[in-house]
Amino acid sequence: MNVLLKGVSREEVRELIAQGGTPWVSFFLAPYPPGETLQRAVQLENLLRRAETELEAGGYERDDMRAILAPVWEMTDARALEAYQDAGLAIYVAPGQVHLYQLPHRVSDAVMVGRRPYIKPLLIQRPATESFYVLALSKSRVRLLHATPSGITTIPLPDAPEGLDDLPQTDPTGRQAQRHVTRSMRGGASGAMYPGHGGNIFDEKAEVHRYLQAVSNAVERAMNRTRDPLVLAGVEYMVSMYRSLNGYAHIVDGHISGSPDHLSDEALCERGAGVLMDDLSRRTTDERDRFEALLQSNPPRASTNLRSILPAAHIGRVERLLVASDRQVWGRYNPDEEVISLHDEPLPGDDDLLDVAAHQTILHSGEAVAVAAAEIPGSNGVAAVFRY
Question: Which among 40, 16, 9 is positioned nearest to 102, based on CA atoms?
Answer without folding.
Answer: 9
